[in-house]
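Lab meeting, item 3. Inverse folding demo.
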């Protein structure tokens, strides 16, 4: 090989090299919920089959700056990398070629970082006919993707949301502990990254919200000033504000929609939904954080506390659900069927 050939080969290798920016798990128990209500739906968003063991998604740029998502079946390798990055440790994520399932153009998630010293992130020209580059779901307007992102944020910031609700209506929040024994489903590679431009019976009324908490930024800090209400034992709203109905004329319809969510959750116990619709994660104090999704709704709950419901039909609103007499048993049954990280 001549010197010119060697230089051309080196340039080609540099262009084809992947500069890893971050990685994400795509498994039945941990997947980017913005992509779907369950694991099969999230897989379908990437054109993948719902492989039972799951995948790891490695997001990066090639030497030309083009965005690529490399799908691997070595889930453990990606999980170790994410855990290392979350701890602030260096970890070079280099999947073996034999583990690569697909190299997909584009990114399915928004990234605010880019590789240094290469062109700005852009979509490559795909050689695969009919394949459009992956792109993050549109979250500029309220809809399923934004609703699921809001539920993610409530789970991450549970204490901040919970403290807005009065003890007289919901009881004191459980004691919080600052640590978690489970890694997140995504992490950013440290170093070198810089900001880029760019039951089947009808549920009783003991788990009915009195009013909702407005949520102006579904994926941001809680902004609500009002407290949500639980329900009295035996049914009926715990709303003590006589002006509430005039301020929220659709409150009755919203409560009806929340009751429908609880009915659908009871239905999950009799007829299991697609895998990933109900997931369980660590929570302090020996409790579990439950996450459930369905057509047009998301629920976040702690098994030792209350629940929050978000609805496609209620843009920017978060509906607290008091424990009452029914919710604890429902959460316990959902926890028993939920998938959890291994």
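The presenter then showed the designed sequence:
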């Amino acid at each position: 090989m001549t010197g010119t050939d060697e230089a051309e080969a080196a340039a080609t290798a540099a262009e084809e090299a992947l500069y890893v920016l971050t990685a994400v798990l795509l498994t039945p128990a941990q997947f980017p919920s913005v992509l779907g209500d369950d694991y099969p739906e999230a897989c379908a968003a990437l054109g993948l089959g719902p492989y039972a063991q799951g995948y790891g998604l490695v997001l990066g740029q090639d030497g030309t700056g083009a965005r690529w998502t490399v799908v691997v079946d070595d889930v453990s390798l990606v999980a170790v990398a994410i855990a290392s990055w979350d701890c602030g440790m260096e970890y070079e994520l280099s999947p073996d070629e034999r583990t690569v399932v697909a190299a997909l153009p584009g990114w399915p998630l928004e990234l605010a970082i880019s590789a240094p010293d290469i062109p700005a992130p852009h979509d490559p020209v795909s050689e695969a006919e009919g394949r459009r580059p992956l792109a993050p779901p549109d979250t500029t307007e309220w809809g399923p993707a934004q609703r699921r992102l809001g539920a993610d944020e409530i789970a991450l910031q549970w204490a901040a949301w919970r403290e807005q609700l009065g003890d007289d209506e919901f009881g004191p929040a459980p004691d919080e502990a600052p640590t978690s024994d489970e890694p997140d489903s995504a992490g950013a590679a440290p170093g070198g990254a810089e900001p880029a431009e760019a039951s089947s019976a009808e549920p009783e009324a003991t788990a009915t919200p009195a009013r909702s908490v407005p949520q102006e930024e579904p994926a941001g800090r809680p902004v609500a000033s009002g407290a949500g209400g639980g329900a009295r034992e035996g049914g009926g709203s715990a709303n003590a504000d006589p002006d509430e109905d005039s301020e929220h004329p659709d409150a009755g319809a919203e409560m009806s929609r929340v009751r429908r969510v609880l009915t659908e959750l009871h239905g999950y116990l009799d007829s299991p939904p697609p895998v990933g619709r109900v997931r369980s994660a660590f929570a302090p104090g020996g409790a579990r954080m439950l996450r459930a999704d369905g057509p047009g709704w998301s629920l976040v709950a702690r098994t030792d506390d209350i629940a929050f419901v978000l609805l496609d039909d209620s843009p920017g609103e978060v509906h607290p659900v008091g424990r009452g007499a029914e919710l604890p048993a429902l959460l316990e049954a959902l926890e028993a069927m939920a998938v959890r990280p291994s």
